[in-house]
Amino acid sequence: MSSGAGYFCTGRMKVMEKLIVKERMKTDKPELLPDFLQRLTNLSKIKIKDAMAKGAAWKTDTRRKRKRIRRATETVQYNDYVELYYDPAIISAVPPTPQLLYDLIHYSVWLKPVGLMTQGTDFGDHCSLLRQAEIYFQSRRGIYPVHRLDRETEGLVVIAHTPEAAKRLSILFQKREVVKEYRASVLGNLGEPDKVDIIKVPLDGKESITEYRVQGYDPFLNISTAVIWIQTGRKHQIRRHFESIGHPVIGDPKYGKKNKSDQGLQLRAVSLAFRCPFQRTDRCFHLPED
Fold first, then answer.
1. Tens of pLDDT, residues 221-267
2. 233 near 147, Cβ under 8 Å?
3. Domain 179-270: what homologous superfamily?
C-alpha cells in the first residue's frame, strides 16, 4: 500500500491532513469499494462515501481505464488499482453556483463564478464547473471540456455535450478562430484612453500574444482599466503578461506587487465570438450586464 496521512492539533481539536491511498486489489473475492477503502484508512464509511460522491476516489481496471468512482455499490475486482485523494478542506468546500446562459444543444455557454474551477483534480470535482453542469443536466447530457478559465477569474466558459461537439469546438480554439474578450483593472497608468498595444512576451517557451485597448485611468487609485483580447491560451497568460510590463492585475494573489485587493482578481472573461460549427452562423456570447 502507498499512502500518506497525518494529523495536527489546534488547541484540543485534532484535524486531519491530506490522505492519499493507492492500492491494488490482491484477492479474488470482489469487495465493495467503500469497504475496501475503509480497511486501508481510518476514515468512516460516511466520510468515504462523501469523498466518493465528490470525486475523490478512482479505479483503474484490468483494461487500464482510469475513472472516478462515485457509486457506493461499486465493487473492486482482482488486480484493480484503487486511489483515494482525501483532503478535508476540499471535501468540505461549498462550490459557488454557475449560471447557464446559453444552451445550443450541442454545447452550452456558462458564467463561471470566482472560486469555481473549470475542471476537477484528483482530490475531487464537486467544486468544478464541469461537475456542476453535469448535476444541472442530471447526467442526461454529456459534459466535455473545450477550454478553461482560472479559478480566480469570472467569465464565460463553453462546454460541449458530445464528442463531436468537443472536437469541432476544440479545433476552433486551436486555430485561434475564437475571439476571447476580457476586461481587467491593472496597477498603474497604461496610457491615454483608446491606446492599443500588444504584449508578445513568450510564456513557457511558446509564442504568446495579448492585445489590449486602454479604457481609462484613475490617478487617485493609480489603476487603469483595459479591454483585452488573447490570441493564444497560455496558463495565466493575461496575468503574467501584464505583470511582465509592470502593470499587474489588481487583486492577483500570485503575480505582481502592491496590487492586492480584498475584492479579488479584477479580471473577467466578458465575451466569446466564433462561427458555430453546427449552424454555420456567427455567434457572439456576452456576460449579462451588471
1. 999 999 999 989 899 999 999 999 999 999 999 999 999 998 999 99
2. yes
3. Pseudouridine synthase (3.30.2350.10)
pTM value? 0.88
Reported in sequence order, the residue ranges of the chain that DSSP labels E, i.e. its strands, are 2-4, 7-10, 13-16, 19-24, 31-32, 57-60, 66-68, 75-76, 81-86, 99-103, 107-112, 144-145, 154-160, 179-187, 196-199, 210-218, 223-230, 267-275, 282-286
Average pLDDT per 10 consecutive residues for the chain, totaling 290 residues: 45 63 94 96 95 98 92 95 97 97 97 96 98 96 95 96 98 95 98 96 96 97 97 93 98 94 94 96 90
Q: Which CATH class is domain 99-175?
A: alpha beta
Question: Do the two domains 2-91 and 99-175 of this chain adopt the same fold?
Answer: no
Question: Contact 232/208 with Cβ under 8 angstroms?
Answer: yes
User: How do the domains of the chain map onto residue ranges?
Assistant: 2-91, 99-175, 179-270
CATH code 3.30.565.10 for 2-91: no
Task: Using CA atoms of 209, 264, 123, 125 in order, give the dihedral in degrees to the nearest 10.
Answer: -80
CA distances from 238 to 113, 210, 246, 267 (A): 18, 7, 12, 9
How many whole angstroms separate alpha carbon 231 and alpha carbon 50? 41
DSSP 95-156: PPPPEEEEE-SSEEEEEEPTT-BSS-BTTBSTTBHHHHHHHHTTT-S--EE-----TT-EEE
- The alpha helices in 11-68, defined as continuous H runs, are 33-40, 45-53
Residue 132: CB atoms within 10 Å: 23
Torsion of CA 223, 259, 264, 206, to 10 degrees: 100
The catalytic site residues sit at 150
